[in-house]
Design a protein that fits this description.
- This protein is an alpha/beta fold and 318 residues long.
- 22% of the residues lie in helices and 28% in strands.
- The protein is built from 6 helices and 19 strands.
- Helix 1 packs parallel to helix 2 and helix 4 packs parallel to helix 5.
- The relative contact order is 0.18.
- It binds flavin-adenine dinucleotide.
- Flavin-adenine dinucleotide (FAD) binds next to helix 1 and helix 6.
- The site of flavin-adenine dinucleotide has 39 residues, from helix 1 and helix 6.
Length: 318
């Protein structure tokens, strides 16, 4: 594999809702566009069963189906979705027009005038046996996405940061009871979030507690909790388990190229004309990999649309 001589207008890294929406908009604007799929073609929604909050589906839709349809829509517009993982993005030596050089893991090299980063973020799981098998069957990484499936039920949230506290508060409005399980004896969350859960009668906090085991065959039934101070073990029967210990943006390959936050999120928003532009002119970013608060598919798609429109007007103006 070597240099691919075609020069693209926009190269989109990532095939989740952000990347595919960006592709739809750039293709319809007649820009030469290509998507690099990455290790998870279709993105995070492909590991969930039912997506209940994507508008237009009165009874929800399957995560895999939604993303397969989105990929087909992109292909129907003539866009190639290329298998592969981007290893490196650099400035190409080509002159006089500045181009970005994109290197894939198989050695293939592409050149593009603009780049949209839409590489998402991976939920940090507990990495316990049965956890992955029970995603969509009681185990979740997102209360906003799946909370409604647990109306009137008993759930636990794992974590001690802002997200865990927010998720516990959100679930307390829907569920009968929420356990907030944290491995330390104090939260990392902001004082405001801490106060909210500490004063919430529906949230019971278990300090110094870790999940030692997940129980259930077809669906989640219970978890075993270990108190890391006393060594005591308890079985907690549950309908839902929400893992809220953070997420990791897939941005390692961008270190040294674009400005990233301490936690690896791509920083955008400084250029008021092109709100999705990074600190590098011509590199845009959208979706869960970016420093936006709400990690939702519809938000990622909306930001992907915005990045495509920004890229289109930036290309037009240069
Ligand atoms: C289990 C689960 C259930 C969820 N349920 C819902 C729900 O019901 N409703 C909802 O709104 N949201 C839900 N979410 C959140 C939603 O999935 C995300 O907010 C959304 O997918 C983010 O879209 P994205 O395009 O930014 O990134 P992602 O969907 O994460 O896609 C990232 C893409 O980038 C690619 N990639 C990564 N690194 C590279 C690289 N180096 N080179 C090339 N490609 C790369 C990946 O292969 C992937 O295709 C859920 C999340 C999870 C984990």
């Amino acid at each position: 594999m070597g240099e691919n001589k075609q020069i693209l207008d926009t190269l989109i890294i990532g095939s989740g809702p952000a990347g595919l929406t960006a592709a739809i908009y750039n293709a319809r604007a007649e820009l030469k566009t290509m998507v690099i799929a990455g290790n998870q073609p279709g993105g995070q929604l492909t590991i969930t069963t039912l997506v209940d909050n994507w508008p237009g589906f009165p009874t929800g839709t399957g995560g895999v189906k939604l993303m397969m349809d989105m990929q087909q829509q992109v292909r129907n517009l003539g866009v190639t979705i290329l298998s592969g993982v981007v290893k490196l993005v650099s400035l190409s030596a080509s002159q006089p027009v500045r181009l970005f050089k994109i290197e894939l893991d198989n050695g293939e090299i592409l050149e593009s005038k603009a780049v949209i980063i839409a590489t998402g973020a991976a939920v940090r799981w507990l990495n316990l046996p049965k956890e992955k098998e029970l995603i969509g069957h009681g185990v979740s990484g997102c209360a906003t996405c799946d909370g409604m499936f647990f109306r009137g039920k008993i759930v636990a949230v794992i974590g001690g940061g802002d997200t865990a506290c927010e998720e516990a508060g959100f679930l307390s409005k829907i569920c009968e009871k929420v356990y907030l399980i944290h491995r330390r004896d104090g939260f990392r969350a902001s004082m405001t979030e801490q106060k909210k859960v500490l004063n919430n009668p529906k949230v019971e906090i278990w300090w110094n507690s870790e999940v030692a085991e997940i129980k259930g065959e077809e669906k989640l039934e219970a978890i075993k909790i270990l108190n890391n101070k006393t060594g005591e073990e308890k079985i907690l029967p549950l309908d839902g388990l929400f893992v809220a210990i953070g997420s990791s943006p897939a941005t390692k390959f961008l270190e040294g190229l674009v400005e990233l936050s301490e936690t690896g999120q791509v920083l955008v928003g400084k250029n008021k004309d092109f709100i999705t532009m990074t600190n590098i002119e011509g590199i845009f970013a959208a979706g869960d990999c970016v420093n936006i608060k709400h990690k939702q598919a519809i938000v990622a798609a909306g930001e992907g649309c915005r990045a495509a429109l920004d890229a289109e007007s930036w290309l037009g103006a240069r």
